[in-house]
Write a structure and sequence with these properties.
The complex is a heterodimer of chains A (about 280) and B (about 180).
Chain A lengths: L14 H15 L8 H15 L4 H9 L4 H9 L10 H15 L5 E6 L5 H12 L6 E7 L2 H9 L1 E3 H4 L3 H6 L10 E4 L2 E4 L7 E5 L12 E6 L8 H14 E9 L14 E5 L4 E4 L1
Parallel strand pairs in A: 1-2, 1-7, 2-6, 7-8
Antiparallel strand pairs in A: 3-5, 4-5, 8-10, 9-10
Chain B lengths: L1 E5 L3 H10 L9 E5 L9 H6 L6 E3 L11 E3 L5 E4 L5 E4 L11 H12 L4 E4 L8 H9 L3 E5 L8 H9 L4 E3 L1 H9 L2
Parallel strand pairs in B: 1-2, 1-7, 2-4, 3-4, 7-8, 8-9
Antiparallel strand pairs in B: 5-6
Helix pairs in contact in B: 1-6, 3-4, 4-5
The chains are: A alpha/beta (about 280), B alpha/beta (about 180).
Chain lengths: ~280, ~180
Amino acid sequence: MALSQSSLEKHYISISQKEVMLDFLDQEYQLSLKEYSEASVRRRITKMLNEFGLDRVEKLCEFLQSRSDGKQLFIEKFTVNVTEMFRDPHFYKALEDKVISVLKSRENIRIWAAGCSSGEEILSLCILLYEMDLLHKCHILGTDLNSKMLDEANNRTYKTRHVSTYMKPYLYAGGRYGLEKYFTTHGENAIFHAFLHENVSFKEHNLMEPLGEEPGFDLIVCRNVLIYFKSTLQNRVIAYLDKALRAGGFLGLGSKESIIFYHGKNHFKEIDLESKIYQKI
Amino acid sequence: MVVIGTSAGGIHALKIILEGINRDFNIPVVIVIHRLKNVKSHMESVLQASTSVPIKEAEEKEKIQRGNIYIAPANYHLLIEEDGSFSLSVDELVNFSRPSIDITLVSASEVYKEKAIGIILTGANADGAYGLQSIHENGGVTVVQLPEEAQVNTMPLEALKAVPGAQKLSLRAISQFLNEL
């Protein structure tokens, strides 16, 4: 059977074993995943069991306990770090037409990319802002639970074979030049130019807690993060994002995410239905 | 809960199955079909032309309801939560695919156990075989389109290798099978 490339493997965590794991994480690491989507939690832990060659969650708990970096290691393996540049090009097009064009007259533009993973989305934003001649007056904060991913984001270095797949989405998103303008190739790596990150900073942050930064962001981008949470947690996180935005600021979610179940949805008006962009009233 | 997985040749095959199901068919069906990610498709309306049972894209945290046929959205994996709602994921491609048929089948098998039904139709890769095995191991029912009838028989053949005891049915017989559930 051709299962070699499948990530569904021989050891897997049952629904009841998941509870054991969640209690462990809560007690040992004060990491509460009880409000995460269960199916994804089981999938990620199943992946971990197979990667470490362990056949039951109890062994995974022991293994993590035996390591001083257990918590960090768990977070590294648990978080979904699949991201790409210019994912959903229509989102970037809508951002340019309906959001940035409104923000451009401001003296400073503060942007928060929440759950930025390895930084492809932030780079996409930086390129968009650069091409609109606005990058110099933007401050972009990227946050993620996984500090290793933040280091990767900070390095601006990606595999050339991945970057080559971003050329078309960049153009669909309204890119004015060619993506190759923004990086140099070193062997199998594409290193994006440092000037793109001039006004970018990164910070480790768990979205289940308030950000602890000055509120008043002009734009918050949080895409394909909420899908990993149950609705109750989605709503709490959206409430934090809501608080961090200034009145008139914008919120961009993933194309399958929305604020329809958020108790404060009346604070927002929909700016672009397809791209899930909202403006705080 | 029925999960149907297909790839190349899938739209045509699905239309034949849908044309044959009763109007009052009311078991939830989830269709996972491989498709292009950056192209807007009108899969729902194309398939809706073949049946009066409502067809819609599965939405994030939507509660699965009887009498609906759901389609996995392009470029997301579709999982099923323990409370019978959908959840989406953008993690790694599986079998070069997102949505992956394996992922939805495994997820359905864990939640619905012996009440899960997995059906694999025409397609050009092995996605779905592992998931069908998971359905089988959890006591669910497994069905594979007759390989000689499939437009591309790789997927049915791989599924049969994984679950040799799966029922082999023609598309028309699959409609019949669904009507009798």
